[in-house]
Amino acid sequence: MRYPSFVYSVQHDIAKGNIRSVHFNDSSNEHDIHKPHSAIAVDSEYNWFYLGGSEASSSFFVEQLDSGWRQQMNSAQMVVIFSQNEHWDAVIEAEMKDILHPIERYAFTYDSSDKEQAAEITRQLAQLLPEGYEIAKITPSLIQKSEGFDEKYIKRFWHTMDNYVQHGFGYCILHEGNSVCECISIAANPDCAEIDIHTALPYQRKGLAFLVAQAFIAESLHRGIQPRWDCNAANEASAGLARKLGFVPSLNYRMWIKS
Hints:
- The protein is α+β, with helices and mostly antiparallel strands.
- Helices cover 37% and strands 31% of the residues.
- The protein has an 11-stranded mixed β-sheet, sandwiched between helices.
- Strand 7 and strand 8 (178-188) form a beta hairpin.
- The longest helix is centred in the N-terminal third of the chain and has 18 residues, at 58-75.
- The chain is globular.
């Protein structure tokens, strides 16, 4: 089972949230997302939600809404619900079609966990980086000056800077002292790290996103976790870059949003 990255962050207490399930075969640990179940619901402090499992029960979703989800969704400016399949899509649409709208998404995984490959990627980066550019880890001081992944971004996806520093990571490409291309973990935990990339407009189409993502991949492999890449189905450029980097399509899904 491939869960959204934030689900693993909730499981590992990196993100505050709740995991609820019904009909577990082993009820001794109802928060173990790897145990067989009929339905599972996950929420987090970032107003991200997940519905999945084999039983598409509308009553189960209504129970989650009544338990606090509805209030949370109504009060938040942005809400995201990840759906496992078309059955859960139908449940969400029936209950929330006036509030949420669907976006088709592609999910990619990296088909390797070789730490030796991480070292090879790092060696190649030193040769491929254009003259006058350098790769650096993203630090809180760089975030303060970031165009794409500023402190507001960090608080949205990590809640606090301390939480990002403790669990997240990212790399940027510097040119003349400025961060011009950045690759950061939108979520990271002992299972996986999900990529988000931003390139300043004057530096686009120079191959920098490919290089900075390689640094992110190398760090993920070095940590022994799976790098992930998700994007909207309409974003052909993002999907193409994922494939160029060696990511493999794993599934298509719907993400329901309020924004």
